[in-house]
Amino acid sequence: MNTRLHDAAPKPLFARGPGLALNFFLLGCLSIALMVMDTTSPRFAVARAWAAWALQPLMWVAQAPQNLAQLGDTFQPRDDLLAENRQLKQHQIELDARLLKLESLEAENERIRALLSSAASLPDRVLISEVMATSQDPYRHQIVLNRGSRDGVYKGQALIDANGVMGQVIQVNPTTCVALLITDPDHGIPVEFNRTGLQTIALGRGDGQGLSLPYLAGNADVKVGDLLISSGLGGRFPAGYPVGRVFELRHAAGENFMEALAYPAAKLNEGRQALLVWSEHGADPVADVTVPTARPEVKKTQGERERGSERLSKSAASKSPGKNASAASSANNPAMGGEKAGASSLKLSTSTPAAPEKSAADGSADAAKTSAGNTAATSTKAKHKADSSAAPAPPP
Amino acid sequence: MTRHSSFPAFIATVLLSLILQMVALPDAIAAFRPEWVAMTLVYWAHATTDKPVLVTAWLCGLALDVLFNTPLGEHALALVTITFVVRRLRGSLILFPLPQVSLVLALAWGAYAFMMFWIDGLSHHNAVPSLRWLPVISTTLIWPLAALAMDRLRAQPKLRRLT
To answer: How far apart are the C-alpha atoms of A121 and A118, rounded to whole Å?
Structure first.
């Protein structure tokens, strides 16, 4: 045999053990069975989590070059550090001053929201996590974070950074978790245009750069440069965080729909920290960092406050965006002026595919939005209409 | 000389390929990352007969599935398949010089990329198809160099004495 030409190990004259083809057949069948079971049932999640844990050393080694490159940060001239320290202190004072103002603004905001009988939208519980690894496939945008089920991370948790929404957790391991970024082609996030309140869904394009908003009506009021914020419909993402900015509008001739392309606001491939946000679960996380929620003296009775928090939890509990929107529309019909409803019916056809009932509704679904100040809590208005009419205005 | 003389080199290169598959690259060239694991396994299937390449391919595939969060078995199936094909065709392949083998193996990388594409499609993971074929090019280009390097490694007397 010509194997002798190439290798020291001679091929045995008679093959021993199971044949190569049999081996291949068995392993192939095993792989296919695994794939089918893995995609159809969640049973393998635990095994996967432990396998990921066992493979962590490999991940650390793979990360080593990156860490080594950052070693340069460790050695810096003392003067530079002192200067930076001074600068940071100044900045801190500035921020403190601004925070003071923010507290009063937040109090005011809460009062105004109470007037509108909508719940407060920004969550207060976050956890800083470090990015351990990024998926290197160009067509899978995932990152691995150093927080897991031990820190109370749950599947579906929203992930943000200093600039906007990054993605959501799709797999929780004991000490790590995997998050899907908003640019992944599998990812969609309910958003609204900050300028107009127009609601739609932003899908990842999968090219690593952009988001695509394919379900816009041809005559929708959208401009290049419009800011997209998370709408909070669906209860998974907290409302009001920047998601992206439109950079291109594509209007195919003869098509009813227009597509907008946006760059994500979050710096998805820069920085090593990300914030995990608790928005829907009432789970009790071990929060390393708790953003101080200003609890200024809003003159509200205890009963009202409780009602407010109850609203919040109910809005989180109702998950289907379609249901929310249609409920809101039906309840707000009598409250809305006819003109407003007519004006906003233009936007109606732009409703997301996840909410087909919404477009079938009678034209005032978006009217609710225009008045409710673009919060995800519009749906709660319907449920608590009675509350809102009964709630007394806060004293000046 | 023992029969398993190049076994340490085998284990070392497979581990190294797993790590190389994960090392962070700049965004601009990340799409061009060669399929290191496939390349290493195919090398050993092509160069030797005494390594349990199929089982190794399967285990490596499962590891990749866990690391890249793909359906369990996706990488495993693709790796086992191309390793099997190369091992099967080994008798003919080793008759050719390295450049020609490199060209033939481009088909193997293409098959690998196609299987990933196919299974991703079945599991409803849409992706940009054009980016999928870039690793085929880079793997074909890097393969001769990697093969030569691993040839040298396999011939290292030091590694042989270890066993």
So the answer is: 9
